[in-house]
Design brief:
about 80 residues, 3 helices, about 0% strand, binds zinc ion
Length: about 80
């Protein structure tokens, strides 16, 4: 990995339960839009997958890499905001 971690991804990484909840909440509403981002006045404005879902998935992937590195007893690249 290179280029640092986007701030939102770093925030989500700091709270794995948040990552899981975001992935559960941000789903396709059946019309190609995120059902969570597109509620109320935002209806139809956020296509699926939304940026929040992509960031949460990125965070989960990074957390998996960190956990795998821990198991190998290798120092992982630190998760820091850019
Ligand atoms: Zn969303």
């Amino acid at each position: 990995m290179s280029g640092g971690t986007p701030p939102l991804v770093a925030l989500i990484c700091s709270n794995p339960e948040m990552a899981v909840r975001l992935i559960e909440d941000h789903r396709d509403d059946g019309t190609g839009h995120c059902r969570s981002c597109s509620s109320g006045a935002q209806t139809g404005h956020y296509t699926f997958p939304c940026n929040i879902l992509l960031d949460a998935q990125d965070a989960i992937r990074r957390l998996g890499e960190i956990e795998a590195a821990r198991r190998r007893k290798v120092t992982p690249e630190p998760v820091v905001p850019v």
